[in-house]
């Protein structure tokens, strides 16, 4: 068992705090994406269409973009421990609002509150990890924190769908509230005091954007994420229309994709060390390649499962690779860099989903996957060997 604090050099490594943040990540991912598996009963329960309910669910992404850009400035000189605790409290409030929502409007308010939590937490997360462990342990700590993403990705949707069918969709959200409450208390106990190191303002954001290497990296990151989510958002219609799976096979394939994330989490902690440049092209290369494989062999369930497992493993490495790059190349302004990275990722997820939807409605599901591949190729063309994304280039 890892002790909460172990001395490494002159800086204590607060692994208990890292684990607390990993649980928070798992709850964030579950809270954000659980409604996808409960869309139909939620719409029926609130007297809304599935399209309206889907829009209410996605409103969290819009507020996450805004919060990620504003939170480090709005927090001023507040202790970052208190800010993280407040973000977790927002998640708890969001779950209560959604679970008890008497109307469509209250559902949207609950999702907006969750968006604030998502944007605020992720904007600060990497900067906080950099203060919890020694520099050489940052990739390992990031992999551990993103292990919560793998757990949620693997189990949130199937468990939510199963429990929702038995107890109703509201019970699923109520079931998450005690876990988040425990996580909030764990934050209070495990997180050390994290005084603000300097006052953040919009000048820090613009200062980073003036750096050519960081600007190139940010664009490459957006292209990579846009590629991934223009495909992932519309994976179900592809599996239904091209692979021809039934509901049971669909659930099994999605579970396989999620469980493969554990391999990616292990690999990230094991292999991502030192200079991050050689790893930057891997997400676009591997996930784009898996998408090509689905386009060519998607009619085969076995081949589809293989490519989905490859995609799922790289999905959990994705965040670790790019946040490691950020921690190494914007270490003088980690909170401002975190704000920009989270805003870029959330915006690219939203735009990728819009692009994929336009291609799906206008042409076909295969066109959506081709669009994903095109974005991946653009990312690879910009990244090349990654050296132009490094500080000092």
Question: What is the fold's blueprint, element by element?
Answer:
Blueprint: E1 5-8, E2 11-14, H1 15-37, H2 39-46, H3 50-74, H4 80-100, H5 104-132, H6 138-167, H7 169-190, H8 202-209, H9 212-232, H10 235-243, H11 247-271, H12 282-297, H13 301-329, H14 334-362, H15 365-383
- Which percent range describes the beta-strand content? under 5%
What summary fits the major beta sheet? 2 strands, antiparallel
Q: What is Rg? A: 20 Å
Amino-to-carboxy terminus distance: 42 Å
Poorly predicted ranges (pLDDT <50, ≥5 residues)?
1-10
Which series of helices and strands comes N to C?
Answer: EEHHHHHHHHHHHHHHH
Which architecture name of the largest domain does CATH use? Answer: Up-down Bundle
What's the multimeric state? Answer: single chain
Specify the structural class.
Answer: mainly alpha
What is the total domain count?
2
For the secondary structure, the number of strands is 2
CATH superfamily of the largest domain: MFS general substrate transporter like domains
The order of strands across the largest sheet is 1-2
Number of helices: 15
Concise synopsis of the structure shown:
Residues 1-390 form the Major facilitator superfamily (MFS) profile domain. With 393 residues, the protein is mostly helical.
Protein described:
GO terms for molecular function: transmembrane transporter activity. It comes from Paracoccus versutus. It is a multi-pass membrane protein. The chain has 393 residues and is mainly α. The protein contains 15 helices and 2 strands. It has 2 domains: 200 residues, Up-down Bundle (Growth Hormone, Chain: A), CATH 1.20.1250.20; 192 residues, Up-down Bundle (Growth Hormone, Chain: A). Helix content is 80%, strand content 2%. It has a two-stranded antiparallel sheet. Helix 1 packs antiparallel against helix 5, helix 9 runs parallel beside helix 12 and helix 11 packs parallel to helix 13. The relative contact order is 0.14.
């Amino acid at each position: 068992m890892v002790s909460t604090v172990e001395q490494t050099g002159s800086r204590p490594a607060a692994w208990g705090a890292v684990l607390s943040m990993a649980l928070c990540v798992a709850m964030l991912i579950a809270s954000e994406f659980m409604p996808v598996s409960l869309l139909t009963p939620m719409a029926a329960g609130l007297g809304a269409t599935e399209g309206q309910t889907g829009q209410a669910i996605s409103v969290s992404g819009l507020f996450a973009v805004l919060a990620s850009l504003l939170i480090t400035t709005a927090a001023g000189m507040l202790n970052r421990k208190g800010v993280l605790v407040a973000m977790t409290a927002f998640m708890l409030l969001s779950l209560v609002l959604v679970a008890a929502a008497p109307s469509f409007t209250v559902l949207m308010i609950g999702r907006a509150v969750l968006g604030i939590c998502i944007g605020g937490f992720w904007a600060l997360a990497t900067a906080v990890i950099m203060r919890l462990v020694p520099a050489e342990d940052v990739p390992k700590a990031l992999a551990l924190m993103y292990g919560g993403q793998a757990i949620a990705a693997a189990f949130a949707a199937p468990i939510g769908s199963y429990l929702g069918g038995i107890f109703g969709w509201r019970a699923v959200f109520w079931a998450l509230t005690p876990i988040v409450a425990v996580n909030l208390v764990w934050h209070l106990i495990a997180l050390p005091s994290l005084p603000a190191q300097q006052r953040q303002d919009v000048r820090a954001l613009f200062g980073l954007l003036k750096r050519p290497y960081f600007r190139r990296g940010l664009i490459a990151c957006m292209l990579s994420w846009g590629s991934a989510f223009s495909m992932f958002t519309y994976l179900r219609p592809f599996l239904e229309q091209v692979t021809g799976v039934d509901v049971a096979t669909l659930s099994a394939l999605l579970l396989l994709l999620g469980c493969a994330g554990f391999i990616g989490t292990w690999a990230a902690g094991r292999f991502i060390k030192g200079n991050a440049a050689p790893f930057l092209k891997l997400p676009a290369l591997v996930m784009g390649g898996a998408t090509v494989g689905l386009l060519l062999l998607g009619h085969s369930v076995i081949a589809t499962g293989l490519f989905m497992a490859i995609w799922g493993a790289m999905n959990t490495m994705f965040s670790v690779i790019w946040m490691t790059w950020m921690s190494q190349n914007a270490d003088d302004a980690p909170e401002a860099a975190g704000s920009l990275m989270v805003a870029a990722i959330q915006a690219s997820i939203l735009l990728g989903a819009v692009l994929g939807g336009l291609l799906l409605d206008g042409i076909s599901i295969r066109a959506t996957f081709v669009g994903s591949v095109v974005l991946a190729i653009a990312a690879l063309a910009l990244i090349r060997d990654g050296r132009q994304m490094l500080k000092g280039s």
